[in-house]
Amino acid sequence: MASYFSAVETDDLLALIFVLFLIACVRLEFRRPFLRPGLKMLKKSYASNIFTYLFNDITLSLLSIPSLYFIAQQFSGYGLLSSLEDGPLKYLITFLMLDLTMYVWHYTTHHIDALWVFHKVHHSDKTLNVTTGLRFHIGELFMEVLVRVAFIGIWGVAPDVILVSQTLITLFVLFHHTNVTFPGEKYLAKILIVPQLHRVHHSVLRVEHDSNYGAVFSFWDRFFGTLNTQEPTAIGLNGVDERYLETLYKTVLSMGVVKQVREFLTVNKQA
Ligand SMILES: [Zn+2]
Questions:
Q1: Confidence of residue 260 (pLDDT cuts 50, 70, 90)
Q2: In angstroms, what is the span from residue 231 Cα to ligand 1's centroid?
Q3: What are the residue ranges spanned by the domains of the chain?
Q4: Which among 4, 6, 42, 231 is placed 20 to 30 Å from 241, CA to CA?
């Protein structure tokens, strides 16, 4: 019982940190914006992305998807780090390897067509702001959970460590989507993925957006030769509808209608 309450408290604390960080990034991008999109376009992006986030979060929770991490714990006894004692070294290795895994996963979503179908929802935002970091297809989020489940088994780490590490990575994702520029950004870019580096990742041109896949550290991109320091030609994706939730809703609705028509026809045929 005690561990249940501590797990709930940890979840609440992580959620609070996430919301406070999001508010700080919003304030920052209004104070020191780099790009200056129209207010109407920006409002549309904020509304669409926040609704997408809430829809995804509630749906995944209702389906108990996060509990998969705790099921994966049963298989963590044989993982690569399972014999290493819990402590700063194990947490640091876990964080680094999870960031590398997310780099590889992100690269894959750009290079396998079946995954790009999901990931392009994230790239279809015609503006770039902190809420773009909340905009993902629910299918992509589900697959990411499966990647982290496999990570728990392969590396032999506790789900709590993954949840904390992933929250930290998510804060970096919010930060690098923030529409901001600040002194010293160029130097910080030598180690971290800063907004200046991530902007080109949202270019309309494939030759530009197939770069800078990192979430936290920029050295993965430097090491694998995918780093690009230029500014994007333009933000978004040409020929891709940015109204993700509306399209999803209409698809689900039309599937429901098709199902009802089929049932109606079957029942009438039998009669
Ligand atoms: Zn991407």
A1: low
A2: 16
A3: 2-240
A4: 231
